[in-house]
């Protein structure tokens, strides 16, 4: 330890943030975090005032995902801290590196049911990768460094640091000499490389199953190279979209509940699944016992706990995907399999020749996808529009498609787009939302207004909670319970109230011009797209059903 | 009623003596579908290492729990004492 100038805990926080390259944070002030906001006043870190702590957490998630870095958010004690929880849970489910700083009542008041006191440390256990509560000023610097290291080490995740007000105000007289805080816990078993190579060379119908771990491992190039050199047909999870070049002739699209018919049939028929950064999520597998029933499995992952968690594997290759996957690259003799699946992709290609004048949501999203500039970042909320975006838009990198995969959190899209746009000011950012989802964090339109953030919003409006309505129609005898949103506000007027340019379209003939107008507009823009409320997302694998028994319409 | 076979295991967990490490272990154990039948925790004040001995039961394989506890930041290691593994049947 060396002597240094006297700092407070709050000013030390900003020094550490800057040591970790943090330029932007998202937050909302309050009583127990006032010393930190006072120190912010003198800091070079740029703070974005969100209008709800959940918005701040999702903006931090969007920032992290779009830029491949750590997102940071602040909240005060009590309700401020609890409002972060959904965002942290979302970050945990999708393995996103976020550091959340919460103010806490002074240590002397802790445990006394003080005003705005909640045990956020206890509440954080189930929704963070790790958490700290700092009760000794001499621990603060080390803890803050550890928070960043843990967020990024191995499988990424959110870390919460709870700092009581007296610790924020306490004098720091000593700084750490050298940063070496985290023990190296990574003790991975030897990889089954030779076994995997043997499985691969004997496979006649292999499939590459690509998940969100690819983007987080910064291994997009390696996975694309592997797919190209082996010629292996590939499928993607929701969170893996963008990892495989969508123009690869052997890429079959998304698998799972709303996956393509070809992807699901191919997986069901394959004799080998090469799984990269994916976890056999229930939305992917359908009925687990009948998922890829004839396949051997090679599983690449950074997280030991994902191996054999839901599906027994034949070869496990743990650790850095970027270094490990090239070890398996080999020439495969699978031309019959490739041709069969290419033909199937042609036979089962999406169709956009929807009858009538009503706007067909898949077609409008394809139009946006076709017209948007390269490297556009798309965020979504959750529901039908999310699945249509996944099915009908093309992404050239996983960091260009930000969607709440594991948690499925409505309200994600708008604040995540704000975070993405802050991290990538020169790229177009479009939030694809629904009329149900956008109301979950609609207050963030005020954040867009305040900072003139040029986010575009494509609002797919069916005046319903569409996905729930679809399930009620299909699986609950059409008993529509609390899914009608026909009393929505006037979204154009609402956006206009936040000085955001907005337009409503209701007919197919209006789509092209409206999308172009939105994309050409320099500032924020909301395009409300009115669609038929009876439209469903197809195909659909019903619950507890094998993926090749999908419904394609009713 | 279906008979469910619960396998009983004894875990020996070594952990840094950090805040809420015990709560973290308990939370993970419950969430991952294991019943806690008994536990004992002691701290070596010389090296600040806690040794937690825990008996758990579940129909799920113990490796699922071991891997999840091992992921906790403050955990140094988890061992399964196979000598104490037993089966018991419950009606559900």
UniProtKB/TrEMBL annotation, chain A:
Residues 193-323 form the Thiamine pyrophosphate enzyme central domain. It catalyses: 2 pyruvate + H(+) = (2S)-2-acetolactate + CO2. Keywords: Amino-acid biosynthesis, Branched-chain amino acid biosynthesis, FAD, Flavoprotein, Magnesium, Metal-binding, Thiamine pyrophosphate, Transferase. Its cofactor is thiamine diphosphate; Mg(2+). Pathway: Amino-acid biosynthesis; L-valine biosynthesis; L-valine from pyruvate: step 1/4; Amino-acid biosynthesis; L-isoleucine biosynthesis; L-isoleucine from 2-oxobutanoate: step 1/4. One of its GO terms (cellular component) is acetolactate synthase complex. GO terms for biological process: isoleucine biosynthetic process; L-valine biosynthetic process. Residues 8-121 form the Thiamine pyrophosphate enzyme N-terminal TPP-binding domain. GO terms for molecular function: acetolactate synthase activity; flavin adenine dinucleotide binding; magnesium ion binding; thiamine pyrophosphate binding. The keyword Amino-acid biosynthesis applies. Binds 1 thiamine pyrophosphate per subunit. Binds 1 Mg(2+) ion per subunit. It is an enzyme of class 2 (transferase). Residues 381-529 form the Thiamine pyrophosphate enzyme TPP-binding domain. Pfam families: TPP_enzyme_C, TPP_enzyme_M, TPP_enzyme_N. Its EC number is 2.2.1.6. Belongs to the TPP enzyme family. PANTHER family: ACETOLACTATE SYNTHASE, THIAMINE PYROPHOSPHATE ENZYMES. This is Acetolactate synthase. The lineage of its organism: Bacteria, Pseudomonadati, Pseudomonadota, Gammaproteobacteria, Alteromonadales.
From TrEMBL, chain B:
Gene3D superfamilies: 3.30.70.260. It comes from the Bacteria. Pfam families: ACT_5 (PF13710). This is Acetolactate synthase. It comes from Colwellia psychrerythraea. The lineage of its organism: Bacteria, Pseudomonadati, Pseudomonadota, Gammaproteobacteria, Alteromonadales.
């Amino acid at each position: 330890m060396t002597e240094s100038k006297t700092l407070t805990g709050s000013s030390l926080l900003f020094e550490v943030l800057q040591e970790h390259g943090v330029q932007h944070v998202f937050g909302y002030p309050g009583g127990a975090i006032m010393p930190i906001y006072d120190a912010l006043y003198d800091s070079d870190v740029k703070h974005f005032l969100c209008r709800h702590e959940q918005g701040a957490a999702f903006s931090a998630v969007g920032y992290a995902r779009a830029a491949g870095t750590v997102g940071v958010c602040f909240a005060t004690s009590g309700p401020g801290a609890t409002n972060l929880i959904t965002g942290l849970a979302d970050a945990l489910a999708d393995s996103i590196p976020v550091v959340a700083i919460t103010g806490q009542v002074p240590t002397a008041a802790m445990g006394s049911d003080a005003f705005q006191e909640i045990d956020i440390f206890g509440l954080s256990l189930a929704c963070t990768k790790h958490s700290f509560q700092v009760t000794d000023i001499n621990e603060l610097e080390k803890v803050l460094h550890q928070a960043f290291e843990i967020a990024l080490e191995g499988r990424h995740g959110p870390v919460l640091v709870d700092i009581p007000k007296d610790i924020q105000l306490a004098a720091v007289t000593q700084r750490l000499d050298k940063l070496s805080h985290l023990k190296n816990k990574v003790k991975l078993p030897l990889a089954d490389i030779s076994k995997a190579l043997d499985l691969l060379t004997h496979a006649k119908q292999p499939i590459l199953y690509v998940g969100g771990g690819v983007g987080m491992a910064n291994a997009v190039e390696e996975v694309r190279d592997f797919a190209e050199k082996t010629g292996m047909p590939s499928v993607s999870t929701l969170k893996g979209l963008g990892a495989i070049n969508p123009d690869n002739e052997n890429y079959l699209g998304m698998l799972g509940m709303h996956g393509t018919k070809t992807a699901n049939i191919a997986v069901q028929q394959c004799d080998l699944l090469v799984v990269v950064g994916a976890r056999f999520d229930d939305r992917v597998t359908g009925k687990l016992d009948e998922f890829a029933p004839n396949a051997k499995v090679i599983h690449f992952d950074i997280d030991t706990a994902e191996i054999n968690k839901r599906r027994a594997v034949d070869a496990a290759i743990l650790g850095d995907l970027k270094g490990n996957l090239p070890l398996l690259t080999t020439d495969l003799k699978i031309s019959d399999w490739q041709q069969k699946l290419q033909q199937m992709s042609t036979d089962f290609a999406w169709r956009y020749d929807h009858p009538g004048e009503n706007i067909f949501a898949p077609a409008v999203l394809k139009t946006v996808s076709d017209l948007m500039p390269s490297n556009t970042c798309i965020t979504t909320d959750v529901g039908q529009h999310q699945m249509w975006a996944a099915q009908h838009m093309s992404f050239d990198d996983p960091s260009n498609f930000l969607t709440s995969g594991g948690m499925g959190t409505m309200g994600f899209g708008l604040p995540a787009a704000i975070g993405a746009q802050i991290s990538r000011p020169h790229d177009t950012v479009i939030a694809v939302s629904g009329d149900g989802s956008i109301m979950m964090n609609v207050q963030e339109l005020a954040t867009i207004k305040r900072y003139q953030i040029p986010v575009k919003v494509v609002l797919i409006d069916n005046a319903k909670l569409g996905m729930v309505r679809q399930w009620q129609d299909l699986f609950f005898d059409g008993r529509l319970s609390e899914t009608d949103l026909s009393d929505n506000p006037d979204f154009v007027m609402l956006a206009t109230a936040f000085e955001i340019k907005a337009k409503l379209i209701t007919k197919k003939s209006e789509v092209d011009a409206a999308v172009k107008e939105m994309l050409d507009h320099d500032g924020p823009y909301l395009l409300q797209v009115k669609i038929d409320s009876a439209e469903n997302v197809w195909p659909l694998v019903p619950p507890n059903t094998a993926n090749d028994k999908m419904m394609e319409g009713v | 009623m279906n008979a469910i076979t619960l396998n009983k295991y004894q875990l020996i967990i070594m952990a840094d003596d950090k805040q809420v490490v015990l709560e973290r272990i308990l939370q993970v154990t419950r969430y991952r579908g294991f019943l806690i039948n008994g536990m004992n925790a002691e701290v070596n004040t010389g090296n600040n290492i806690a040794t937690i001995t825990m008996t758990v039961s579940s129909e799920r394989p113990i490796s699922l729990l071991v891997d999840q506890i091992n992921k906790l930041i403050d955990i140094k290691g988890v061992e399964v004492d196979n000598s104490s593994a037993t089966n018991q049947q419950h009606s559900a």
